[in-house]
Amino acid sequence: LRAYLREESARLRSLARFYEKVQALHQDPEASVDNPLLAFSLIKRLHSDWPNIVYSDEATENIQELHAGFKEVEQELPGAEDLDGAARALMRLQDVYALSVKGMANGVFQRAGAGRPPLYSPSRRVSLSADDCFHVGKVAYDTGDYYHSIAWLEEAVGLFRLSYGSWNPEDRSSLEDALDHLAFSYFMAGNISHALSLSKEFLRYDPSNQRVARNVAKYKKLLEMGTVVGLAGGATITHPAAVPSSHPPWSLFSPQLAPEHLPHLGCSYETNGSPYLLLQPAKKEMVQIHPYVALYHDFISDAEAETIKGLAGPWLQRSVVASGEKQQKAEYRISKSAWLKDTADPVVQALEQRIAAVTGLDLRPPYAEYLQVVNYGLGGHYEPHFDHATSRKSPLYRMKSGNRIATVMIYLSAVEAGGSTAFIYANFSVPVVKNAALFWWNLRRNGDGDGDTLHAGCPVLAGDKWVANKWIHEHGQEFRRPCSADPQD
After folding, report:
1. Which positions fall inside the Fe2OG dioxygenase domain (predicted)?
2. What is the CATH superfamily name and number for domain 1-113+121-228?
3. How does residue 242 score in pLDDT terms, banded at 50, 70 and 90?
């Protein structure tokens, strides 16, 4: 690619020199094309020299090299699935943080409503084009999600109107496309009058489109009949592309679960009776009593965090979730993960020893799972879930070491905004604290799951979130966390 750019730059410089010579023939008042020599020179340049530059062997070789270089990296470039996933991530951020679509299109992460400070102020504001907004709206449209398609297509229509008539090589859509899809979205949402007005606007730009003309006639008829909900009226409205049936709305967590200030329940240096912690006690902050949640600051060093991320990087794959007796990908968990054995590196082994010392639990196989390293990128999140199994059919029981008694989650990176761990029923959240470890018990002492540990990974608004999870099982912990005299505990 560098070789192509170097050769192409030289060719473009030749084009610039050619243009300057031709332009000089027109700008020099003394250089009249009445002069047969100048006329010949101009005609020759336009007939022979120009094709020689544009269609030269060098130009052909450069294009071939570019295509060959592109083929080499094509497999590593984002695909259609990545692009659509990024669009869904923007809609997820819009929902969870109650962001204004117009603000997002202008590069501002502002909550909907006047007078609110932005959630995140990037150092460099990046705006979305009309075509960008159209693509986000089209992704929603194609899944029957007309709530989101209306918001994003409205923004696309507004931006296309401002630039109508000007050509943009990056645009794959147009004002007509946006009006067409927006009209049908409004129709499906039950707003027939607005669908009619948008379709009429479309016909001003493309009066020969018979499909939209037929839709206009049918919209008028539905309004005359007093029909409110589009398809209930029995009319067949044709639309730009086939649309699957509507799916249930995202069951995302409430926007009210934005990061909050941690309750100040006290901090302490802890040795937990372990010789390993005598010289360097753990820095413990109690976040919540019920459920028991503690944050251990400076649990891992920057160098250790980078080592773990480096070890996991080549093995990262789309995260899966338990579904009955199987595991599969799901939209409610968007991240990539990898598993590291304690033998993968001395850093991982030292981290396992540190976790055992702080928790007082037995991490020897099979009493704990391998270290799971997770990366949450653009809009990465995990909807409300329990870490412990709620069914005996769960794959967790195949380890024959019981349910997950405890979770240790280590923050390997900082994020600029978003990414908090929100405990839904307990009504509190913990922001990302780089190099800290969050610990909580998933099970009560009687072995029952603690319902208050329902938690979610809020979408990453800005930044790159890395965590390492260590799940510890109940077998092997009988004398380390014994049952209570109270059977309800």
Report:
1. 367-474
2. Tetratricopeptide repeat domain (1.25.40.10)
3. very low
